[in-house]
Structures are given as structure tokens and as C-alpha cells.
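Hi all, posting the design record for the shared folder.

TITLE: backbone redesign
STEP: 1 of 1
STRUCTURE INPUT:
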């Protein structure tokens, strides 16, 4: 079968990397892909925009694509799935209505309240003065969130009332005319992905990531600097609670609204010290970089699993098979990221890492002539596995040391939380 992956990041590379391992997959096409997917065996790139729904639909139709998987949130929020479904193209991902669970934090908050899903107590505002007086009444710490997609730049976790109110003004000036103000939760964060077929769902291994650019979780927010799975915080007991208290009622509430949610329902959770999970947000797609540690541990053929979701046959699908052990991914970024950075730096060492049995998930890379060069802030992620976290961490950093490009930056402390806990 032929699989089409939409997107160009490390997550999409990881999806393509997993698909090509299946003997049932003879070709993977990435739109537009990156320097890594260009050279992966059985895989090729197609230079097309991810918002060119008509072009993508036509290509998928002519080529007889058996499965389209959409990586990023933007095309999902813009309705790529509705467009492809209307032309009978099998696609994994929620429709535009379903994608609102990520694209509108206010919509998601209302849905959660209706379904009695545990989440931070909050209120939706379309008037900035009302938001500010609510903040004054609730007091700090408090969290202000833009309603729409903001690429990780729409949330202010404020320590004071003044900071929160300034956050309201700031988001308002950026053009967000709807905000959510919510209670500040304490605890540890956990990412849980549920694969959904509209009715049933299956959880993948829980992961934790590191969003801040600096060691010790300091500095600016990023797309993610590293991650690990299976996160020990996600015990079987906790995951059962998440199934029962979060995923099942959310899918039921979506169905009540007439939404058949096929795709990843990604719950960003805050787990309190007493083990109570609350939803910080939902995303409507695979997480990046969490996918880069989850897929290397998944033994079940991914294309069979996602096809079962698309066909509504998840209920009868065999239990997911996982490799024993742990996976750690460390992201190598361009100097300056998440601020300004340069592109076009020659990357060396990828083959050396792969020879060691570790994986290089390319993200911001490009082929220039025969040479691989940097083309983004997060350039690549190196993942290695091991029987425990200590060995997975050591293997990952040993492999990462083979990679080199001018201005390469990475955090030295990825998965340190696990080290502290064991
Ligand atoms: N209610 C909250 N209490 C404490 N921290 C929060 C809360 N909501 C969000 N955060 C912090 O802000 C980060 C970003 O918020 P999130 O809702 O995940 O938005 P996005 O990923 O769209 O930027 C979270 O990962 C978490 O660290
Ligand atoms: Mg988030």
C-alpha cells in the first residue's frame, strides 16, 4: 500500500520512518517532507503546500493512496479531512469540527465542562475588560490563554494579577478576540495520546516532554527540546483513570455533537501530587517530539492500526504490542532558537548515529546538492532506547555526540526527572 504523510517536521519523519518498516507499505510520500524523508528508503517528498487541499486530494486519488495521515494541526483546523473525505480518500485525522478541540480552547473548555471532564476551572471571554476584572476577583497565580491556534505562544502562566492583566492586553493586541482565563494547576505534566476510530480508542504509551529551552526547565518556551517514554508518572492506575475520566467522556461528548472523532486525541494533563489528572488542553494530532519516542517502542504495524481507526474497526483490532524498555529523544536546535537563528549549516554524523543503532528524526533539514543542511529551529532529534532510562539516556547522548553542525544546541538534562525519581 501507499501512504501519504502531510507535514514536514520530526513527527512526520517519525511517522514515515515507522511506515516504511512495514512490509505491507511499498511507498510513503511526504508533502512537503524534509531533508530526511527525501532520503528514507521507500519514501519521497512532494513539494506541495499543506494547505493545497485540492492538490493533495488529486494526487491521492490519482496515485491510489490507501491512507493519508495529517501531522500538523493547521490543516486539520482548516478542514483538510472534510475535503479528502468528501472525495472518498481514507484519511486519519479529525474533521474541522473535531479539530476545534485544539483550535478553540474555549470550545474545548465548554465541552469538558459539559462532559464533566476534570480540568482547570475557567471562563471564556470575548471582552478584555471583563477578563481583567475576573482576574482581579480570582487573584493570582492564574492562567490566560488565547482561544485560537498560537503555535505555543498563546499562554501566559501569571504569578501576579498585573502580569495576567498585561497578558490579556498582549493577546488582545495580537488579534485574539476570545480568551480563556483559568485556574493555575500544580503538579507534573504528562502527554497521553488516544487513537480514536469515532467510537473506540486505544492509548499509546505515556510520554513527558521538556518545553523550555534551558536546562532545569528554564528560559523560553519551545516546540519541545526532548522527551521520554514510557513516563513512569503514567502508571497503569493513572492511565485507567485517564481512560475513564477523560478520554471516554470526551469522545461521548463529541458524539453528542455529531462529531465522529477519528484521529489522535492528545490529552495534555497536569497530574497533582495525589495522582489526580486534570486536562490542561487537548490537541488533535500526534505530539512533536513525543511521537519520536513512542513510535520506536511500538511493535504493532502503524499503518494497520491507523487504517483500523479510519475504518471504524478499532474494537476488534489486536492488543497493541510494545517493545520492552525505554526511549529518550534529545532535540538538537539551531543557535538562537526559539528566537532568531541562521539556516544552511552543514550537518554531519547522521550515518554514524544510525550505525550505532540509534535513530535520527530529522525536522528542520534540507538537501542542498548532495549535502544535508539545517533549515529550521529544531533541526533533528536523536532517539535511542535501552532496558531502563539510565541506559537509554546514556545511549542517546552518546549518539548525539556524533552529530555536528555550526551553532548546534541541545539540553544536557533530558529525562533528568526520571533519573531523580529512580
Ligand atoms: N491551568 C494551568 N495551570 C498551570 N499551568 C498551565 C495551565 N495551562 C497551561 N499551563 C502551562 O502552559 C503550557 C502551555 O499551555 P497549553 O494549554 O498546553 O497550550 P499550548 O500548548 O497551546 O501553548 C502547558 O504545557 C503548561 O506548562
Ligand atoms: Mg500544550
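Okay, here is what came back for every position:
SEQUENCE:
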Amino acid at each position: 500500500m501507499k501512504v501519504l504523510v502531510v507535514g514536514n517536521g520530526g513527527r512526520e519523519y517519525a511517522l514515515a520512518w515507522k511506515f516504511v518498516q512495514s512490509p505491507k507499505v511499498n511507498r510513503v510520500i511526504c508533502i512537503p517532507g524534509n531533508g530526511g524523508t527525501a532520503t528514507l528508503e521507500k519514501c519521497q517528498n512532494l513539494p506541495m503546500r499543506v494547505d493545497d487541499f485540492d492538490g493533495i486530494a488529486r494526487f491521492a486519488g490519482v496515485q491510489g493512496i490507501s491512507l493519508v495521515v495529517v501531522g500538523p494541526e493547521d490543516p486539520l483546523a482548516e478542514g483538510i479531512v472534510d475535503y479528502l473525505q468528501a472525495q472518498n480518500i481514507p484519511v486519519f485525522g479529525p474533521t474541522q469540527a473535531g479539530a476545534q478541540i485544539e483550535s478553540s480552547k474555549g470550545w474545548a473548555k465548554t465541552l469538558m465542562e459539559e462532559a464533566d471532564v476534570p480540568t482547570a476551572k475557567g471562563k471564556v471571554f470575548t471582552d478584555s475588560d471583563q477578563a481583567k476584572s475576573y482576574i482581579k476577583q480570582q487573584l493570582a497565580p492564574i492562567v490566560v490563554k488565547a482561544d485560537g491556534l498560537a503555535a505555543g505562544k498563546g499562554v501566559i502562566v501569571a504569578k501576579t494579577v498585573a502580569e495576567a492583566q498585561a497578558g490579556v492586553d498582549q493577546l488582545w493586541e495580537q488579534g485574539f478576540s476570545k480568551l480563556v482565563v483559568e485556574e493555575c494547576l500544580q503538579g507534573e505534566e504528562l502527554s497521553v495520546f488516544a487513537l480514536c476510530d469515532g467510537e473506540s480508542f486505544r492509548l499509546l504509551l505515556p510520554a513527558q516532554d521538556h518545553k523550555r529551552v534551558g536546562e532545569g526547565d528554564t528560559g523560553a518556551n519551545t516546540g519541545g527540546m526532548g522527551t521520554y517514554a514510557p513516563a513512569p508518572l503514567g502508571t497503569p492506575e493513572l492511565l485507567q483513570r485517564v481512560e475513564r475520566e477523560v478520554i471516554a467522556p470526551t469522545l461521548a461528548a463529541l458524539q453528542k455533537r455529531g462529531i465522529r472523532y477519528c484521529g489522535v486525541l492528545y490529552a495534555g494533563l497536569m497530574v497533582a501530587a495525589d495522582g489526580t489528572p486534570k486536562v490542561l488542553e487537548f490537541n488533535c494530532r500526534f505530539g512533536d517530539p513525543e511521537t519520536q519516542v513512542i513510535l520506536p517502542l511500538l511493535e504493532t504495524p502503524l499503518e494497520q492500526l491507523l487504517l483500523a481507526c479510519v475504518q471504524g474497526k478499532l474494537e476488534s483490532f489486536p492488543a497493541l504490542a510494545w517493545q520492552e524498555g525505554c526511549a529518550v529523544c534529545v532535540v538538537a536546535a539551531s543557535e538562537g532558537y526559539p528566537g532568531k537563528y541562521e539556516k544552511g549549516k552543514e550537518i554531519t554524523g547522521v550515518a554514524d548515529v544510525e550505525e550505532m543503532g540509534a535513530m535520527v528524526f530529522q525536522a528542520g533539514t534540507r538537501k542542498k546538492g548532495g549535502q544535508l543542511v539545517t533549515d529550521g529551529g529544531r533541526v533533528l532529534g536523536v532517539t535511542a532506547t535501552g532496558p531502563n532510562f539510565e541506559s537509554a539516556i546514556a545511549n542517546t547522548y552518546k549518539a548525539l555526540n556524533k552529530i555536528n553542525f555550526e551553532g548546534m544546541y541541545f539540553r544536557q538534562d533530558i529525562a533528568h526527572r526520571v533519573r531523580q525519581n529512580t
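COMMENT: Residues 188-316 form a domain with the D-amino Acid Aminotransferase; Chain A, domain 1 fold (CATH 3.30.470.20).
Let me know if anyone wants the other runs.
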